[in-house]
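[job 0412] stage=complex_fold ligand=3-isopropylmalic acid status=START
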Amino acid sequence: MGKQFKVALLRGDGIGPEISDEAVKVLRALEPKHDVAFRILEGDFGGAAYFKHGHSFPEATKELCDEADAIVKGPIGLSHEESKKIPVDEQPERGALLPLRRRYNTFANFRPVYLPAELAHFSPLKPHVVEGGIDFMMIRELVGGLYFGTKETGVNDQGKRYVDEHLEYDEDQIAAILHVGFKEAMGRKKVLHNVHKSNVLKSSVLWNEVLDEIAPQYPEVTVKHIIVDAAATALVLNPRQFDVMVMENMFGDILSDLGGGILGSLGLMPSACVGPDKAYYEPSHGSAPDIAGKGIANPYSMIGSIALMLDKSFGMPEAARQVWDAMRAVFGEGITTADLRDPEGKSTILTTAEFGDKVVEALG
Ligand code: IPM
Ligand code: MN
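[job 0412] stage=complex_fold status=DONE, emitting structure tokens
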């Protein structure tokens, strides 16, 4: 009997359930090939969980996540109208996702921005800009900054409603994520882009101080500093200059969506959220309620998240590589889902489930 892993599966909202089905298909296909068994523990999470249990991160789901070796999570979130039916603090982002990140202190978020050369036409950028493909890693701090700082709302002395929301980091949190960035750079091209806003934000001044202190531990890594707004422009004009980028929480939220944009679809953005004891895996995109249930969503980000899990949580880099290769092979046959642009209109558009089947087929 081979290895057994317990995987908590939180399907989430919107397109979450349907792209999760494809991820499960891939896991099942890998079992016999790698003599491994994945025990899938399903838990309610997100808006759907709120309507069912009155909480978007129910206790039972917490227990199941505690028990699992790793967690796979679909996107969560409701349409603007549906969200309004839920108290602000129970809305899936604040009520489920941020508590999940906090519970396992998943401070290191890996967001690969990757398009192999033969798929560069998916990018809306001009061919000469993306020639040779796009391949860099965005590392986002995930449990600090504005997202997790103290928040206060009320009415001030002048009778005006106000909000006071803090951006907080301590030096240990900054050092932890910078070490992740340096280590990732060591495993790649040894160039680390540090994204900050030290011309305005004191948090970035401290961030850069800490960076200067730990950089000598990585003498082989060349650090390049770039201000976050300039980084947005650079990502569009010349994304190929980047290999590893490291940044605080909100910068990473915004720039990683830009990463999806230059690939041609957020559907191409899987991610790994890694803490000291546990990691969870999720697409970087939202739940796309407008297309939910139509079977047209791209499951790549969910299947790619599985590949990241195999590699980072289960020590199965070979299986992970097979999953990436399989998806690449499917795209290589001229098959896509509806989100991906094909300027020549030559590709065959498949449904979510058909795409998953093709990936399983390509796994052999
Ligand atoms: C992401 C998402 C989340 C974030 C939302 C859903 C809270 O946009 O993972 O990037 O802002 O972190
Ligand atoms: Mn985001």
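The chain has a mean pLDDT of 97.
[job 0412] exit 0
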